[in-house]
Amino acid sequence: MSTPTDAEATGLALLARAEALARHSDSPDHYTRTWLSPAHREAARQLEAWMREAGMSVRTDGAGSVIGRYEGASPGAKALVTGSHYDSVRNGGKYDGILGILVPIACVARLHGRGERLPHAIEVVAFADEEGARFQTSFLASRAFLGRFDEALLERRDAQGVSFGEAMRAAGLDPAAIAAHPRDPATLAAYVEVHIEQGPVLLDEGLPLGVVTAIAGGTRHRVTVAGAAGHAGTVPMARRRDALAAAAEMVLAVEARAKGQPGLVGTVGMLEVRDGTGNVIPGEVSFTVDIRSGEDAVREAAEREVFAAFDAIAARRGVKVSAARNHATRATPCSPRLQDLLAGSIAAIGCPVRRLASGAGHDAMVMAEATEAAMLFVRCGAGGVSHNPAETVTAEDAGLAAAALGEFLRRFAPAA
Ligand code: HGY
Ligand code: MN
Ligand code: MN
Hints:
binds (2S)-amino(hydroxy)ethanoic acid, five-stranded antiparallel β-sheet
């Protein structure tokens, strides 16, 4: 068990690493790190160096994920996998994903420093792409880790027109081999992910750590509204088929439906006016719709109603609407056995145990398809804000997360 002083010292070192890693950014003005950008490759090299320093052997997989392995007492033992992602949203926070990579590296470094081997191996995985900001992918790297890859993604281009395959080749990766070496689930003992809460529950209750009970499911669609472009000065209002005015009503329909039901959230996070110009009536607009709930039936009903509302708005306004789904996950319960083990570990370091659901998506959702999975949440500061540069975590909480995970790693045994 760590004393609070130990926890804080470990935490300060963790926050210093998060600061250093955030300097590998696509933008000099803020922290954005998208899949396979030069900054993303530099971050991968830094993570690899820290993993080696902690006593791990390191490899990079077909998607650019960095995988460090610390052998157990007997070589080749099943691995307890722990990690998170090192890509970010645009103008994001420094701890989303990163904390779940740095904390386990610190835990392994401590084991290595003492020459201690556990009965199982530990693998720390820094997933290369979870947010999917560049190609609108989600969970790309954890899916590739398990050998799952949607070939349709090869058709995608980023905002600069670079194709998915070109981006991979520029980073020295082979698009044909992205998921060519699927991890055999029989070699996995379990998956545990440390992550900032990204919400205010722990902060409001004055608690540093939490055990995740389940992760909300969600879908993302790209919606296109086709109207008629025309002259802003000459087309009478009654004769317009303005795609943006229709899309605006649709955005409000998403908000109204989500507001109407507790536990349901709906977001339009991107909206683009094709060839948008101040003196042209918008002819085509596309936008994203993200809908989530802890209950799949609630989400599915909301989706049906939202898309029915879009059809009605489109019919009334004389525009056409179409939607393509590009992401879907079902609500994912965390392993009750691992939840209890995490709860025992949190209690053992002297912290109260709080169980809570995750509204955000995590690589743990994908890993749960292959093995037992669980998550340890760490309190967020600044009102619990995340996906925002104001995101914070305290050194003490980061240190407590390392102490709790260290305890968990020692208590863990594969399911019988
Ligand atoms: O969108 C999510 O929930 C995650 O942060 N990628
Ligand atoms: Mn995120
Ligand atoms: Mn995240």
